[in-house]
Design brief:
alpha/beta; two-stranded parallel sheet; 20% strand; single chain
Length: 472
C-alpha cells in the first residue's frame, strides 16, 4: 500500500511538472526563459514545480481578473474621470509623446506644476506638509515602511489627519514592509486610518504569487496634490544608516490634472487589495502659476505590454544628443542593453549612473557581466561615491525627463508594480540636468581596463549572478 501511494505521489509530481511546462511554454516572455523552465520542470519537477509557481509566473493573473471586474463595475466612474480631464489633455502632436500615452493608457495633461525634491529632508518636509494640508482624503502607499523615528513621524501625521476628519487610506507592500509590526498598524487603525497590505497572494488561486511586489511610492492629497519618486519610509532614506551612509534620492511633487493619474493607479491597487471602491474627487484643478505637460505611466505584471521596459527603450531611441539615466540596480533586459549601445554608436551622450556601494549583492554583481560590451560601444558608466544612490531618473535631450520608481532591472520591468512621471518640458529637464551634473561630479567613471583586470573568479561570479537576474 505504501509503495502504491509513493508511486501515485511521484506520478502526480511529474504530471504537475508536465502541466507547468505547458504553462511555461505558453506564457513565458522570452524563448530562453521558456526553454529553461520546460527542461527544469520535466527533468527536476520536485524542485522546479514549486520554484515555477513562486518565481516563474510572468503575469499577475489575479490582478488582471480584478482589473476586468473593475472595468465593468467602475466604467461609469472612469468615464466621468476621462470626461472631466478632457479639457486639460495636451496636444500630443509629437509621435514620441503619443507612444508614451499609449504605454501609459493615460493622456498627457497640461496645467500642471512639478517641483523637484532632492534628498530626504526636502522630500519628507514636503510630504508631511501635504498631509497636514489635507481637507478631504489622503491616499498613501509605500513599498517599505519602517517602525523607526521616521515611520513614527509619518504615523503621527496620518493619525492627526484622521482625527480632524480626513479620510486616510494607507497601503503597504507586505514583502517590502515585512518588518512592520502589528502595533504600528494597530495604532493607525484605532485612530481611524484605513490600512491594508497590498495582498499580492490574496485568495487561494493566487497564494503562490509571492514574487510580485507593489514597488510604488505615492501620496495623493484631495486629488489635487501628488508625490511620486524613489523614497520609502525609513531613517536610512535620511542618510542615518551607518552601512549605507548618505542617501541620494529624488522625489517629485505634482499639482494639477496629472495628480489624477497617480490617484487612478492607487485606486486600482486599493481595489485589488481590499475589493473596495473608493469615492474620490475626479475633477481636475489647473495650476496657473506654471503650466507643464505631464504623463503618468503606471506599469506592472498585469499589463498586456512590458510597459516599463518599453518606456525606457522608447526614451533611449528618442534621444538625439543626450540620454542620462540613474538607477541603483542596473541589470536591464536585452532590449534596453541593445538600445543603449546603439544610441552610443550613433553619437548620443549615453551616461549611466549606478552606486559605488552595493545594496543587493547579486544585482550589483550581475551588471559586471555585460558592462564591458557597454563600454566598448561608447556607453559611459559612472559610480556614485558619497553614499548609496537610489534615485530613478531619466533625461532625454534637454527636452524631457522622468522621475519615478522604476529600476533598470528585470524585477522593475516585469515583476513589480511601478509608476513614473514623464515630463516633456524643457524647464523641468533643465532642472534635472543641473541636478545630475552635480551628481556626476561626485562619481568616478569606470573604464574597460578596470573590468578586464578583474580576477577570473569575480568574472565567473558575475556571470552566475546575471543568470539569476530574472528572479532577483
Amino acid at each position: 500500500m505504501t509503495s502504491w501511494l509513493i508511486g501515485v505521489a511521484i506520478f502526480m509530481v511529474h504530471l504537475l511538472g508536465f502541466v507547468s511546462a505547458i504553462l511555461a511554454l505558453m506564457s513565458s516572455r522570452t524563448s530562453q526563459g521558456a526553454i529553461a523552465w520546460i527542461i527544469s520542470l520535466i527533468t527536476l519537477p520536485y524542485v522546479a514545480v514549486p520554484a515555477y509557481w513562486i518565481f516563474g509566473r510572468p503575469r499577475f493573473y489575479g490582478y488582471v481578473s480584478a482589473r476586468g471586474e473593475r472595468d465593468s463595475v467602475l466604467r461609469q466612474v472612469l468615464a466621468k474621470f476621462r470626461e472631466h480631464v478632457e479639457p486639460y489633455v495636451a496636444d500630443a502632436t509629437d509621435t514620441d509623446i503619443r507612444a508614451v500615452e499609449q504605454l501609459a493608457l493615460m493622456p498627457m495633461t497640461h496645467g500642471n506644476r512639478a517641483e523637484l525634491l532632492v534628498d530626504g529632508e526636502a522630500t519628507f518636509d514636503s510630504l508631511f506638509a501635504g498631509i497636514e494640508a489635507a481637507e478631504d482624503y489622503i491616499l498613501i502607499q509605500f513599498f517599505i515602511v519602517r517602525h523607526d523615528v521616521l515611520g513614527m513621524t509619518l504615523k503621527s501625521h496620518l493619525q492627526r489627519a484622521s482625527a480632524r476628519g480626513v479620510r486616510v487610506h494607507f497601503l503597504y507592500d507586505e514583502i517590502g514592509s515585512r518588518h512592520l509590526d502589528d502595533d504600528y498598524l494597530r495604532d493607525l487603525t484605532t485612530k481611524g486610518v484605513d490600512v491594508s497590505a497590498f495582498n499580492s497572494s490574496r485568495g487561494w488561486r493566487h497564494r503562490f504569487q509571492l514574487n510580485f511586489r507593489n514597488h510604488r511610492k505615492v501620496l495623493v492629497v484631495d486629488g489635487n496634490l501628488g508625490w511620486v519618486g524613489g523614497f520609502n519610509v525609513g531613517v536610512e532614506y535620511l542618510g542615518q544608516d551607518v552601512r549605507h551612509g548618505p542617501w541620494r534620492d529624488t522625489h517629485l511633487k505634482l499639482s494639477g490634472p496629472s495628480v489624477l493619474g497617480l490617484q487612478e493607479a492607487f485606486w486600482e491597487d486599493w481595489h485589488w487589495a481590499t475589493g473596495e471602491v473608493l469615492n474620490l474627487a475626479w475633477t481636475p484643478r489647473r495650476t496657473f502659476a506654471e503650466s507643464q505637460n505631464v504623463v503618468i505611466v503606471p506599469s506592472g505584471p498585469a499589463d498586456r505590454q512590458e510597459t516599463a521596459s518599453l518606456l525606457v527603450q522608447h526614451a533611449i531611441h528618442s534621444a538625439q544628443s543626450l540620454f542620462w539615466v540613474t538607477s541603483p540596480y542596473f541589470v536591464p533586459d536585452q532590449g534596453v542593453q541593445d538600445a543603449l549601445r546603439l544610441a552610443a554608436m550613433r553619437g548620443v551622450d549615453v551616461r549611466i549612473m549606478i552606486p559605488e556601494r552595493p545594496d543587493h549583492l547579486l544585482v550589483f554583481l550581475s551588471a559586471f557581466s555585460f558592462l564591458p560590451d557597454m563600454l566598448r560601444a561608447g556607453v559611459k558608466v559612472y559610480r556614485y561615491q558619497p553614499g548609496f544612490l537610489h534615485q530613478k531618473v531619466m533625461l532625454i535631450d534637454d527636452v524631457a525627463a522622468s522621475v519615478g520608481t522604476v529600476n533598470l532591472d528585470n524585477r522593475s520591468f516585469r515583476l513589480n508594480f511601478e509608476i513614473t512621471a514623464f515630463l516633456p518640458d524643457r524647464h523641468f529637464a533643465a532642472e534635472v540636468r543641473l541636478m545630475l551634473e552635480r551628481d556626476f561630479a561626485n562619481c568616478r567613471r569606470i573604464d574597460h581596463d578596470e573590468l578586464a583586470e578583474r580576477a577570473l573568479w569575480r568574472k565567473i561570479v558575475s556571470r552566475a549572478a546575471y543568470l539569476l537576474s530574472p528572479i532577483q
